[in-house]
Write a structure and sequence with these properties.
55% of the residues lie in helices and 0% in strands. The chain is mostly helical. Helix 1 runs antiparallel to helix 2 and helix 1 crosses helix 3. The protein is flat, with a radius of gyration of 14 Å. The relative contact order is 0.20. The model has no long low-confidence stretch (mean pLDDT 82).
Length: 83
């Protein structure tokens, strides 16, 4: 079993914000204006992708799946939610 990946706190914070924004967008009614949420999701996605952690020599090994798991553990969401 691999030891858990260690991510910088600011990267996990970004992923938590992304998860919250995505959840808010998923819960928004179809007729609601979702432009602001969609734009925020795009900005957060860009910040996640461009984070300095991924440019570090070992950063590419600590993948996005582990990052999402770390963010969910920290927010208490645990596993996947039913759709």
């Amino acid at each position: 079993m691999r030891p858990p990946c260690r991510f910088p706190d600011d990267l996990v914070d970004l992923q938590e914000a992304w998860l919250r924004t995505y959840a808010a967008l998923a819960q928004a009614p179809a007729e609601a204006g979702t432009t602001a949420l969609r734009r925020r999701l795009i900005v957060l996605s860009c910040r996640l992708h461009a984070h300095r952690h991924w440019t570090a020599p070992t950063g590419w090994r600590d993948g996005g799946v582990e990052l999402r798991r770390a963010a969910r553990r920290r927010t208490g969401q645990g596993g996947r939610r039913a759709a």
